[in-house]
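Severity: low
Component: inverse-folding endpoint
Summary: output formatting inconsistent between runs
Steps to reproduce: submit the following structure tokens with default settings.
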């Protein structure tokens, strides 16, 4: 009975049925109990295997339906006679066979060739951050001394970013970095938004390289934000272990804890 209750709790954890408080308590138990973590890993594999079995069973059921439709498709009555009717009926059979083959190919790609779940996580959980740049720079007076042309690039870039015009924002931000900017913090913030743009565009290597440089800077005011997007970039590069390790640092951050727990649960 005790084992059954434990399995029920593990299933509830893996299926996302626990409350946020229960979820955190259960993860704390796993950290302290290696046997429990092993049991969770084993149950996760069992659930994954069951899902794969169900997908494969559905796949072969579809193949049976295609085969049945191909065999039983009525042929033109003239097919029993020699002449043009026979040629036409053979062409019908040929196209039916080609269509069936194409259907099999498409279904095979959908069900048999595994998609990169990590790659999907990067795009699934990405959403651009709010404009942290303009208000913070203004409040700290960090834009003082910059030429108007540089300031205009910065403002236009953040307007474009907020409107989802990432390519235009990218051009303006990259041009801004080429100006005579002497303020490191401005440059850090510009890199932060460029990293997001690379991430949204699926340029995971560029996003990772841009954000990892910021991640290594001590006491960076936007370190939590950088950590989140760096973790997503690592998932995009299919560095699952590194991505999970990066994001675990945010589990105690109220702003990111829920999203981090959700994404880590999907990778188990």
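Observed output (run 2 of 3):
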């Amino acid at each position: 009975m005790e084992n059954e209750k434990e399995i029920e709790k593990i299933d509830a954890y893996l299926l996302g049925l626990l409350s946020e408080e229960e979820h955190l308590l259960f993860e704390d138990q796993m950290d302290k109990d290696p046997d429990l973590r092993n049991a969770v890993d084993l149950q996760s594999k069992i659930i994954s295997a069951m899902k794969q079995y169900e997908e494969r069973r559905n796949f072969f059921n579809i193949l049976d339906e295609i085969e049945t439709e191909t065999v039983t498709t009525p042929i033109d009555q003239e097919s029993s006679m020699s002449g043009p009717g026979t040629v036409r009926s053979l062409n019908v059979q040929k196209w039916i066979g080609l269509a069936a083959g194409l259907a099999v190919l498409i279904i095979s790609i959908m069900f048999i060739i595994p998609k990169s779940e990590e790659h999907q996580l990067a795009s699934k959980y990405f959403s651009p951050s709010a404009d942290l740049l303009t208000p913070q720079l203004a409040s700290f007076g960090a834009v003082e001394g910059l030429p108007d042309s540089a300031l205009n690039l910065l403002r236009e870039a953040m307007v474009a970013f907020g409107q989802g015009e990432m390519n235009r924002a990218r051009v303006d931000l990259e041009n801004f970095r080429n100006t005579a900017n002497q303020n490191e913090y401005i440059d850090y913030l510009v890199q932060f938004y460029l990293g997001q743009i690379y991430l949204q565009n699926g340029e995971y290597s560029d996003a990772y390289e841009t954000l990892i440089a910021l991640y290594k800077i001590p006491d960076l005011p936007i370190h939590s934000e950088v950590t989140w997007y760096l973790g997503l970039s690592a998932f995009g590069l299919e560095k699952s272990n590194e991505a999970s390790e990066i994001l675990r640092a945010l589990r105690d951050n109220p702003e990111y804890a829920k999203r981090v727990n959700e994404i880590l649960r999907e990778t188990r």
